[in-house]
């Protein structure tokens, strides 16, 4: 009996030791991989990401939520550019666009409700239609003249919601639109780069998992606040198309924005993103110059979704950026900014033509 017990203890100790050694080896390998990545030359290491600031403004929405916004660039510019950020991000995600456009255009950047410095809201008000109403109030208060709307991911959906609810603005006040890495609907069918059966299984369990974790958001956030090598590696591979060469500084910057978004907020907005369907509202945008931009490796709002929007807007300019993914405005800012400048030049030319008539 004693021999049997000692044998079981010995086997258990060996298994535990092997498992511990495996975990330790995996942890070492992970740290080693991240360390090697961070030792590579980083061209963005000195970039003041998240440090550019404008004139702060607080907008109180019709349902009493305080939205943080910033106005940047020359106040007397003939055109205002309103930048709408994506899910789990904040207005600083437009760093490169702000940096390159602020000398020529009046910019309005704002944090969507429950994101960034804006006030948290109830789960019932965490909808794309409500975001569209928020954008309406931002435009009314901070863009008194002609403007162009630019939206990334959820920000693009916000613009579509505005078009659905206030079509009269497009062509009158709103002179152009840029939709970047976004979708008009059917996100619940996205494969996420997985085989069909696995993708279906993931979509089946994700809503309930997100909702469950959302109810324990404060506990989840405690684990997220310290950051981790795992989060860095996952974001590097999923958020950026050229993961081998993307700047570690940029990856850290994005990870800090995502980490600062409470998990309860992530859970609150998740159903709204999955149920989003505004393909019918795209016709409103056909009356103004529109630019559609997507990374060729976008796994969250795939190329097919941007092509579907382009098919619904045959006069839109379509740009597919190579070697990039969902965070294309941060990964390939030059290509995105070129597309924005082309759109803004077209809007200016249309204004001149209208003035001459």
From TrEMBL:
**Which keywords fit this entry according to its UniProt record?**
Hydrolase, Signal
* InterPro entries documented for this protein: AB_hydrolase_1, AB_hydrolase_fold, AB_hydrolase_sf
Mention any Pfam family matching this sequence. Abhydrolase_1
Q: Name one GO molecular function term.
A: hydrolase activity
The molecule here is called Alpha/beta hydrolase
Q: Where is the signal peptide?
A: 1-29
Q: Where is the AB hydrolase-1 domain?
A: 80-333
């Amino acid at each position: 009996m004693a021999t049997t017990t000692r044998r079981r203890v010995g086997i258990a100790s060996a298994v535990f030791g092997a498992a511990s050694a495996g975990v330790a080896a995996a942890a070492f390998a992970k740290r080693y991989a991240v360390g090697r990545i961070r030792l590579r030359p980083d061209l963005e290491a000195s970039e003041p990401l998240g440090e550019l600031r404008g004139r702060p403004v607080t907008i109180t929405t019709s349902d009493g939520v305080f939205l943080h916004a910033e106005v940047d660039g020359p106040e007397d510019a003939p055109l205002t550019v309103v930048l709408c950020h994506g899910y789990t991000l904040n207005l600083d995600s437009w760093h490169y666009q702000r940096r390159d456009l602020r000398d020529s255009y009046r910019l309005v950047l704002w944090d969507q409700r429950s994101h960034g410095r804006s006030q948290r809201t109830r789960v019932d008000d965490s909808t794309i239609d409500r975001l569209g109403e928020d954008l309406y109030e931002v435009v009314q208060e901070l863009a008194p003249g002609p403007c162009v709307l630019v939206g990334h991911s959820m920000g693009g959906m916000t613009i579509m919601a505005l078009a659905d609810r206030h079509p009269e603005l497009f062509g009158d006040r709103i002179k152009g639109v840029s939709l970047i890495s976004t979708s008009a609907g059917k996100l619940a069918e996205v494969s996420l780069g997985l085989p069909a059966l696995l993708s279906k299984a993931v979509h089946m369990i994700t809503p309930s998992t997100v909702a469950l974790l959302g109810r324990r958001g404060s506990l989840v956030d405690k684990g997220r606040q310290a950051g981790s090598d795992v989060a860095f590696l996952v974001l590097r591979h999923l958020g950026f198309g050229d993961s081998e060469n993307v700047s570690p500084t940029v990856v850290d910057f994005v990870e800090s924005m995502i980490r600062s978004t409470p998990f309860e907020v992530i859970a609150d907005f998740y159903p709204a993103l999955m149920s989003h369907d505004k393909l019918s509202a795209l016709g409103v945008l056909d009356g103004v110059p529109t630019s559609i931009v997507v990374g060729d490796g976008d796994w969250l709002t795939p190329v097919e979704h941007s092509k579907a929007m382009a098919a619904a807007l045959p006069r839109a300019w379509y740009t597919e950026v190579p070697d990039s993914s969902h965070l294309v405005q941060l990964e390939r800012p030059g290509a995105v900014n070129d597309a924005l400048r082309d759109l803004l030049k077209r809007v200016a030319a249309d204004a001149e033509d209208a003035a001459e008539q």
